[in-house]
Every structure is written in C-alpha cells, then in structure tokens.
Structure to design on (425 residues):
C-alpha cells in the first residue's frame, strides 16, 4: 500500500496530522483520533469523551474521510480548542502504535457486552445452577456488588462517605475476588473505603493490624488448654476464610515473615490454607471471603519510607499477587462535601471550603517535609466539629491538632491556619 499523501506537513513529516486531538471539558476531556484509513488517501476519525462519571469513554463516532475533509475538520477542531498531543519527539507513530487504543477500546467494549449478557442470562435463570440469581446486590459507583447477609461484624454505614469515580476500579476488583492492597498516607481513607463497601453490601469485616502485637498464632491459630481439654482456636485468617468475612491486613509492611508466608498461600482466589499445626487441616475459602491489605510505605509510596519507621520492603513477587492502588487524600472539593455532609446542618460551604484548603496546605507542607505529621480527613473532621462547638478555631485546634504534634509542627500549622482565617474583629 502506498503511503497516503498527508496534508499540510509542517516540518516535512508526512505523519504530522495523525494522532490524538484533545480538549479539556468541564468533566474531563474530549478527543478525536486521526489514523490512516484502510484505503489509500483516507483517514479514520474516531471521537470519544472521557468524563468523571463514566471514565474512559468508548468511541461514539467512527468515520473515514478524505484529505480535503480532514483539512476542514482540523480547522474546525483548532477553532474549538482541540490540540494535537505531541509525543516524545523520537517516537514516530507506527501504525500499530496508533491502532492500539481503538483496538483496545473495541476489545474492552466486547468484554463489557459479554459480561452484561452473562448477567442478563443469570437474571433470566439461564445461569449455571451454582449462580444464585436471586441474591440481592447493591450499586456502588458504577459497580454492582453482591450482598452478604446480616452479621455482627458488618460495619456501620457512614452516610457522609463519598465514593469518587476513581474508586470504581477498586470496587470492581472486589467483585472479581482480586486481592486488593491500598497504599497511601495515614488517614487517606484506606480502611474506610473497604469498610464502607462492606457496610453497603452487608459483609462482615475483620481487621488485623501488623504494626503491633499480632503474632502468627493470632493470625493463623493456636492450641490452648481449657478445662483440661486441648482446643484449637482459629486465628483471624481461617476464621474469615471459613465464615466468608472480609479480612483487612492493616499495615502489611510491618508483618512478620511467618504471617506473610501464611498469607501467600491464600493470595490466589481459590487458594487454600493448610493449618500445619493442626495436622495439616485444609481450610478452603468461602465464596464471600475477601482479602485486603493496607500499607503506608510500599511500592509507589516507598519514597516516604523514612516517615514510617520500621516498615519492611515487600518483595515484588509478593506484590504481584495483589492489585495495588495508591490512595491519595480526597481533593479539596471532595473534602468540602464530606465536611458539609458529616456536620450537616451546621457546617456551611464557605467554612468547609476554607477548612479543606487548610488541610490541603498542611499536606503540601508534609509532602515537602516541612511538617512531620500527616493531616488526615479524620483530624480535619474532628477539628471542624470541635470548632463548631467552641466557635473558636484556635481553641479547637488544641486538642484536635496541636497537642498531637511537635511544637515545631504546631507552630507551622498555626501559621497556615492564620493565613486562611483572620482573627475575629
Ligand atoms: N471518601 C471519604 N468520604 C468520607 N470520609 C472519608 C473518606 N475517606 C476518608 N474519610 C474519613 O477519613 C477517616 C480516615 O480514614 P481511614 O480509612 O481511617 O484512613 P487510613 O486507613 O488510610 O489511615 C475516616 O474515618 C473517614 O472519616
Ligand atoms: Mg487504616
């Protein structure tokens, strides 16, 4: 096939008009992709929008045009604010490179359609007998989560909890029974994300913190003597596996090697636990069992290891058995909403906006290492609540913030607060 003669070459490169033309929209971005058409002298144009609610959009317009038509389109897009995304200069766009994303989008759309069809079949009673089509489910973000049943360990729903669209992938992983590890700073919302999914879908949650006295006995189980009888007591892991609970292994980067070894066995979705101490009894996972881990200083967070003293590096083979998500603090606009919803009806938007901005500044100072203490959403909510009661941000900051940090940090935070809040006249 002859190379099509491309229009208006700017610097002699014939592929100059090929590529992705993008413009920002209110909720995300909109793009046109120009690639080489199947026939000579033609161009394929694909259009899609990516927005917060629906994530990466699928292609909604897909057409083939000639060079003259393309020229007109390019002019129109330029007027509309679309700009060609330049790639690294050395990367000349090969056809496979350009074809990858549209190809992937088609494959992904087919997979989604197949999933919907399967779900439809199950609803119509066409699923395999093992499918319990009558089981209730609840929608979290854009994901349907199968409900469990009432259990004393189901967490309480926090009605003020916010599920931003970026959590959808995590919720989908939970549904698919993937092992999910959430990494991020203290108070970024790792534990509460799992708990709030569990609360809404009625699954009991067990937590086990590795940064403390948790022994392999607590985790896996141990023998004990009671009334002259020797009894086996299941640890949290077999308990969760047998009862179909969700187990959160908090601060997994502090776990002892023997606990990690026990965990490794159950990292595969159907992975079974062998209780060596109990005559090699095998524990198979209940279908509702889910396993989560949280960590502060693993992987993409390892640059902050010195802030979380004693954390272990996790080896890559172990990490590869997890989907690892980096959870950052909520954005100021999201945290503003959480403040208003949590402290309704007293918290007003102007107050909440200022408080969220103070939290954001404190976190920026922490990231620059000017501050040595993290500023969690929990701390912000607590300070705000006390401030409403006392009517005095400075007095409220005493027990909610200053007393918990070093005098240097307290002075710096006080400065940030003063920067945002002028003293009462
Ligand atoms: N998306 C959210 N919506 C509402 N509140 C949140 C959200 N994320 C975090 N929080 C608040 O922040 C607090 C701290 O989160 P937590 O899950 O304990 O953090 P981590 O486990 O990362 O240390 C929670 O108790 C909750 O009140
Ligand atoms: Mg936590």
């Amino acid at each position: 096939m002859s190379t099509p003669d491309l229009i208006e070459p700017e610097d002699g490169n014939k592929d100059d008009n090929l590529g992705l033309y993008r413009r920002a929209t209110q909720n995300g971005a909109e793009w046109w992709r120009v690639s080489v058409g199947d026939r000579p002298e033609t161009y394929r144009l694909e259009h899609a929008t990516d927005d917060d609610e629906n994530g990466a959009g699928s292609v909604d317009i897909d057409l083939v045009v000639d060079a003259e038509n393309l020229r007109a389109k390019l002019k129109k897009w330029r007027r509309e604010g679309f700009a060609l995304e330049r790639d690294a200069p050395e990367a000349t766009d090969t056809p496979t490179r350009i074809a990858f994303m549209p190809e992937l989008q088609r494959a992904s759309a087919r997979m989604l359609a197949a999933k919907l069809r399967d779900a439809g079949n199950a609803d119509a009673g066409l699923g395999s007998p093992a499918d319990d089509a009558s089981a209730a489910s609840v929608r979290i973000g854009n994901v349907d989560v199968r409900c469990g049943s009432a259990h004393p360990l189901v967490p309480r729903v926090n009605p003020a909890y916010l599920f931003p669209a970026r959590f959808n992938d995590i919720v989908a992983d939970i549904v698919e029974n993937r092992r999910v590890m959430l990494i991020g700073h203290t108070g970024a919302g790792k534990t509460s994300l799992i708990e709030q999914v569990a609360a809404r879908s009625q699954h009991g949650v067990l937590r086990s913190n590795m940064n403390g006295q948790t022994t392999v006995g607590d985790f896996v189980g141990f023998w004990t003597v009671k009334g002259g009888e020797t009894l086996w007591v299941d640890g949290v892991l077999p308990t969760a596996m047998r009862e179909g609970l969700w187990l959160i292994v908090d601060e997994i980067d502090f776990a002892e090697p023997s606990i990690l070894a026990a965990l490794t066995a159950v990292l595969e979705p159907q992975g079974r636990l062998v209780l060596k101490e109990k005559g090699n009894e095998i524990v198979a996972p209940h279908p509702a069992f889910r396993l989560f881990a949280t960590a502060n200083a693993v992987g993409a967070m390892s640059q902050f290891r010195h802030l979380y003293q004693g954390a272990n590096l996790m080896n890559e083979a172990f990490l590869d058995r997890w989907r690892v998500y980096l959870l950052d603090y909520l954005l100021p606009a999201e945290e503003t909403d959480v403040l208003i919803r949590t402290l309704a009806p007293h918290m007003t938007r102007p107050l909440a906006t200022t408080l969220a901005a103070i939290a954001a500044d404190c976190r920026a100072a922490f990231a620059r290492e000017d501050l040595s203490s993290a500023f969690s959403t929990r701390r912000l909510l607590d300070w705000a609540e006390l401030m409403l009661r006392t009517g005095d941000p400075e007095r409220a900051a005493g027990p909610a913030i200053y007393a918990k940090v070093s005098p240097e940090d307290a002075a710096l935070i006080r400065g940030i607060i003063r920067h945002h809040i002028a003293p009462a006249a």
